Amino acid sequence: MNSLNIVSWNVRGLGSGQKRLKVLNHLDDLKADIALLQETHLSLSAGHLLCCSQYPVMYSASFNSKQRGVAVLINKNVTFTHKDTVTDPEGRFVIINISIQNKDFCIASIYGPNVDDSSFFHRFFTSLSVHSDSTIIIGGDVNLVLDPELDRLSTAANQRTWQSASILKQYMNDLGLCDAWRSCHPNTKGFTFFSPVHHSHSCLDYLLVSNSLLKEIKSSNIHPNIISDHAPVSVTISRGSTHTLGFNLEV
After folding, report:
1. Residue 143, marked binder
2. Which fold has domain 3-238?
3. Of 26, 41, 131, 230, which is the active-site residue?
4. Which residues contact 230 (CB under 8 A, 6 or more apart)?
5. Is the torsion defined by CA of 76, 80, 84, 87 positive or negative?
6. Does the annotation list 10 as a binding residue?
7. What is the domain partition of the chain in residue ranges?
8. Is 82 among the residues known to form the active site?
9. Which of 23-27, 45-49, 65-69, 153-157 has the highest mean pLDDT?
């Protein structure tokens, strides 16, 4: 294996067995080693349906079978030790803490509210902050844009800026996090979602990683929208850096 690939994707419901198969197959096509999923729409009792031979390990938080739900899937080729999991009872985030060859990682899948709710981000980062000494990787649909100029293309005359965006950016600054895709494409407009209601293209889906990983990033991509109405976002860490970071990736 030449790299470690992390994919974040709002899958917009996995209640259908046929759609679950399509999503899992596409994650395999994208060569995802760690997949961070949002809007799984799976009840607690149905969460195990996401596990498969390629992704046998899954951590999730559920709300109900009609809304929310997040998950972290780990490829069979990644060797790690699980320490603990934090699950949101409202099904908006799951945080796992794992050790890979004695190096600690805090990995989260997050689904933000589609209203301006700063309290959600306070709650999430409070849960995350106890592991702030670990290398952090957050993937998810935060339902807001970080840069209104580059992350949004709209025909609407007015677009208000949410207070939640300022709160999120402040936490990113406090914890030393960066937008992996934007770090690789500093002046490019890239969008992960189209809203026919608001006639706008937006980047709502992000991979936020510790600044310490910046020099290790080989590439970051927004992939085509298929299966879901959101595009998958990925970040790839080169093989040399995974060795430096202590990854033990089996072929």
Report:
1. yes
2. Deoxyribonuclease I; Chain A (3.60.10)
3. 230
4. 9, 10, 11, 12, 141, 192, 193, 204, 205
5. negative
6. yes
7. 3-238
8. no
9. 23-27
* Dihedral Cα 245, 98, 54, 30, nearest 10 deg: -50
Catalytic: which of 33, 141, 151, 179?
141
Q: Which residue has the tokens 């109405």?
A: 229
Q: How many CB atoms lie within 10 A of CB 240?
A: 12
Confirm if 148 and 118 have CB atoms less than 8 A apart: no
Per DSSP, the three-state class of 22 is helix
**Is the separation of the CB atoms in 33 and 234 below 8 Å?**
no
Structure tokens at 135: 């290398």
151 is in an annotated binding site: no
**Spatial separation of the C-alpha atoms in residues 81 and 58, rounded to whole Å:** 13
Of residues 156 and 94, more confidence is placed in: 94
Quick one: what percent of the chain has pLDDT higher than 90? Answer: 78
Q: Which helix (H) or strand (E) holds 175?
A: helix 163-175
